[in-house]
Amino acid sequence: MIIQKILKEWSSALKFFENKKVCIIFRKGGIHEKDFVQTEDFFGFFPTFEHESKDTVKPQYGNIKYLLNDKVGYSGLGELNYFGKIISSYQISSIDQLSQLDPFYIWEQKYLVDRFNFRPKNPLRCYLLDVFKVKLPKRIEYDSKKAAGCTSWFELTNAVNVHSYDRINDDFQVRKAMKILDVLS
């Protein structure tokens, strides 16, 4: 598996994916992006803490690293521990739909409502992901200036090849989420 593109995702969300065995994210695009651009390729995950706080994450899912104020910086070097692929995409057209998906995400309702209302002309999208944990984390290099800030994606300086990994998703959990998402769409 060759990984070139990296998606920035909350550290707590990555741990949630691993524990709950279902992977759902919501995107509209960062402040420096007009829209979230979906990719068909496999991509790596870069754990972030910029927006993660006691007010944005359900209390039972907050990452202890955040509570210790240990922030991940953008040094240009890191480790690839997870990678994934978008399975399907759904438009969220009402706040009510967010409530029905509550068991499948870590974010506080208020945070998602704020995201829903941000740039109202752009729809909030829900992405169901297939996620994999790398057995032997890979060293990655990237341009720290391009990775920092409110952007969703950045490119690695050199693609990495991942040979040994485990799938995180549980098919039963994914089917439960898909059933709800299919009804909502």
Structure commentary:
This protein is α+β, with helices and mostly antiparallel strands and 185 residues long. The protein has a single domain (2-184), classed as Roll (Archaeosine Trna-guanine Transglycosylase, Chain: A, domain 4), CATH 2.30.130. It has helices at 11-20, 64-67, 95-100, 109-117, 144-147, 171-184; strands at residues 2-10, 23-27, 43-48, 77-92, 124-141, 153-161, 165-167. Strands 1, 2, 3, 4, 5, 6 and 7 form a 7-stranded mixed beta sheet that branches. The termini are far apart. The mean pLDDT is 87.
Compose a concise summary of this entry:
This protein has 185 residues and is an alpha+beta fold.
